[in-house]
Amino acid sequence: MTTSANWPLLEADNVSVTFPVSGGLFTAKKRVHAVSNVTLSIAPGETLGLVGESGSGKSTLGRALLQLEHIADGEVRFDGQRVTHGLRSDVARLRQQTAMIFQDPFASLNPRQTIGESIAEVLRVHKKVARPAIAARVAELLTRVGLRPEQASVRPGQLSGGQCQRAGIARALAMEPRLIVADECVAALDVSIQGQIVNLLMELRETMGLAILFIAHDLSIVRRLCDRVAVMYLGRIVESGPSEAVFRSPRHPYTAALVAAIPEIDPDKTLPADPLGGEPPSPVAIPQGCAFHPRCPYAQVQCRTDAPPTRRHAEHVWSCVLMQAGDNAIFPLTGGYKDEAQAC
Ligand code: SF4
């Protein structure tokens, strides 16, 4: 086994995930391109936000990175070792050192088991501590996430949503993970509870050096929690970079529209009624050229046929024909930036 602190903890290289969908009686089977040619990396201790509308492929990508979805093309490396079609020992190490937190805290725990039994099961199956030490470790993990050790004896149905999510996080921590994939883990909670869970994740990141892939559609939380952000549209990453750069100067019109819709940035601002101009197209029939062109207020003739070029300014990367690095005019409809001279 080769490891290095200098390597990203997790890397995805041109990863694609497709699903078959049944065609009609006389039509050929089609495939949904849920994730297309995604390249990203997460460093040890880093929090990467993955954002986009529902159906953009965020959750599928999160599961694919943990090898819970079949990868049609490309590869994932964990700690420098290939895990897509890799050695069984490398895949086992990925499973030992990663964990997921899910959106529905009640569905992620067995309703027939007590919270303590659910956590103890992970410790036992993955041989994390000797059997006589399991009860003490369960109590320690519950305390770690802000629950009382006595709550080990209750079932998920006896807890509030926030307490249940804390129990889910304790179960994930039982793996002693280096990377957690948190899939919309606060979306089902009240706003005040969301803040508590985000604070807990930030504290765990600081104290345990956890890397977190934080999948969310709430950009205000992502801005607060994440070091970097990647924006997905119809299975592709259309913009990525340090959170501050992406939120302050979004370079892709889709990102600019999402950022403009965050109320807390300017609570007095009148938002466009429909900043994105309708529903995203079906992933079964992704538009040619730039997939965003049917909804893009700045689409140009070539956007219908040509794939958008990739632009880069330091760590900030985006795929759009409009802006070169250094352009800084404002997108009038979305609150982001654009080169006025190139608008249609
Ligand atoms: Fe809009 Fe064209 Fe840029 Fe796509 S490439 S986001 S359609 S301007």
UniProtKB/TrEMBL annotation:
<keyword id="KW-0472">Membrane</keyword>
<keyword id="KW-0547">Nucleotide-binding</keyword>
<dbReference type="GO" id="GO:0016887">
    <property type="term" value="F:ATP hydrolysis activity"/>
</dbReference>
<dbReference type="Pfam" id="PF08352">
    <property type="entry name" value="oligo_HPY"/>
</dbReference>
<dbReference type="GO" id="GO:0005886">
    <property type="term" value="C:plasma membrane"/>
</dbReference>
<keyword id="KW-1278">Translocase</keyword>
<dbReference type="GO" id="GO:0015833">
    <property type="term" value="P:peptide transport"/>
</dbReference>
<dbReference type="Pfam" id="PF00005">
    <property type="entry name" value="ABC_tran"/>
</dbReference>
<dbReference type="InterPro" id="IPR017871">
    <property type="entry name" value="ABC_transporter-like_CS"/>
</dbReference>
<keyword id="KW-0813">Transport</keyword>
<keyword id="KW-0378">Hydrolase</keyword>
<dbReference type="InterPro" id="IPR013563">
    <property type="entry name" value="Oligopep_ABC_C"/>
</dbReference>
<dbReference type="GO" id="GO:0005524">
    <property type="term" value="F:ATP binding"/>
</dbReference>
<comment type="similarity">
    <text>Belongs to the ABC transporter superfamily. Glutathione importer (TC 3.A.1.5.11) family.</text>
</comment>
<feature type="domain" description="ABC transporter">
    <location>
        <begin position="10"/>
        <end position="259"/>
    </location>
</feature>
<comment type="function">
    <text>Part of the ABC transporter complex GsiABCD involved in glutathione import. Responsible for energy coupling to the transport system.</text>
</comment>
<protein>
    <recommendedName>
        <fullName>Glutathione import ATP-binding protein GsiA</fullName>
        <ecNumber>7.4.2.10</ecNumber>
    </recommendedName>
</protein>
<dbReference type="InterPro" id="IPR003593">
    <property type="entry name" value="AAA+_ATPase"/>
</dbReference>
<dbReference type="GO" id="GO:0055085">
    <property type="term" value="P:transmembrane transport"/>
</dbReference>
<keyword id="KW-0997">Cell inner membrane</keyword>
<keyword id="KW-1003">Cell membrane</keyword>
<keyword id="KW-0677">Repeat</keyword>
<dbReference type="InterPro" id="IPR050319">
    <property type="entry name" value="ABC_transp_ATP-bind"/>
</dbReference>
<dbReference type="InterPro" id="IPR003439">
    <property type="entry name" value="ABC_transporter-like_ATP-bd"/>
</dbReference>
<dbReference type="InterPro" id="IPR027417">
    <property type="entry name" value="P-loop_NTPase"/>
</dbReference>
<keyword id="KW-0067">ATP-binding</keyword>
<comment type="subunit">
    <text>The complex is composed of two ATP-binding proteins (GsiA), two transmembrane proteins (GsiC and GsiD) and a solute-binding protein (GsiB).</text>
</comment>
